[in-house]
Write a structure and sequence with these properties.
This protein folds into 2 domains: 1-30, no CATH class; 31-124, no CATH class. 41% of the residues lie in helices and 13% in strands. It contains 4 helices and 4 strands; from the N terminus they run E-E-H-E-H-E-H-H. The protein has helices at residues 13-25, 51-54, 80-100, 112-124; strands at 5-6, 9-10, 32-37, 63-68. The N and C termini lie far apart (54 Å). The relative contact order is 0.14.
Length: 125
């Protein structure tokens, strides 16, 4: 009944606790990949990597950082180096963290599925 007090507290509290328990069971592991360009003139080198320290609840084995040599701010997510070197690393990181539940170092692999994911990332960027 509304307003009725129970052993645990106010009415409805049990439903709230049950909902919170359900949310805890559905937690999805989070992984963090940061990417930056060596010649970035807008964000300083190391600025994106600083996110790793800020995201202290993500385990170290679920974090990776990649610095692309020879590209600036714009080249990190556009151009031939993005398509050939960065997009495959992003795809590998995403797929690896989904399959294993743990992110490995962002290293490209020659797998058809990864190539198709990388291609779709390159097209949408």
């Amino acid at each position: 009944m509304p307003g009725e007090h129970r052993e645990r507290g106010v009415a409805g509290r049990d439903e709230h606790d049950e909902h919170r328990h359900h949310l805890r069971q559905r937690r999805t592991p989070v992984a963090l990949l940061t990417v930056e360009g060596e010649k970035d003139d807008i964000s300083g080198l190391g600025q994106t990597e600083a996110a790793h320290a800020l995201c202290s609840n993500i385990p170290a084995d679920r974090k990776a950082h990649y610095m692309q040599p020879g590209v600036g701010h714009y080249g990190v997510f556009n151009g031939s180096r993005f398509r050939s070197e960065i997009a495959p690393r992003i795809a590998d990181f995403v797929l690896t963290s989904q399959m294993n539940g743990a992110a490995r170092q962002a290293k490209p692999r020659a797998v058809a599925k990864r190539k198709s994911v990388a291609k779709s990332i390159a097209v949408t960027a």
